[in-house]
Design goal:
With about 220 residues, the chain is an alpha/beta fold. About 35% of the residues lie in helices and about 25% in strands. It has a single domain (about 10-20, about 35-70, about 115-225), classed as Rossmann fold.
Amino acid sequence: MENDSKAGIWNLTEGNSYKPDPQATEVTLQRYQRIAPFYDLMELLPERLYRPWREHLWSLVEGLEVLEVGVGTGRNVEFYPEGKHITAIDLASGMLDRAVQRAKALGKKVDLRLMDVQSLEFPDATFDTAVATCVFCSVPDAVLGLRELRRVTKPGGLVLLLQHVRSESPVLGRLMDLLNPLVVRMMGANINRRTPEDVRQAGLFVEEVKSFGMGDVFKLIIARR
């Protein structure tokens, strides 16, 4: 089974600090560089489901300083609330270039940066809210990335996630496990992660998990530091 959720490595030279696996991160980077020109087309059908939930997600944002991780081609930019200072990052420059173009076309002011969520270049407690949509399915070490979100979010700050997860149905869940290696190679995303559990493991307090769409695969996760 191809699932990179435990892809981190122990760096014994830096006080046993948990660090991203550079090889796994590079593989992910190259996948998204490769599909960046076609990504919006590939996501055309799923976007019909996600679009209203993106809008709802951004309506929940609190505070002035907001971070979006995995901005991708900028699908969320049109829903950014007015009056916020929004910083958005992505691992792949090819994806980020398209987000820049989309922000300009929409007249949105965004601080767009090339960065890895597993190793954020921000001080502790910088942001009031952190947001991600369909990101932690493809982060090599999801828990490490979520720990970084916790670190850069202010105490009591909000973490909002839209994510597809492994179904709890024995049949569908097993099918997702079997298909996962193929989907990862084609799309870069794991379809069998248990993101609510990863959020808790990262030390965040889960306030609510809502299902949307069909079955129990698509989730809105509301958590706090």
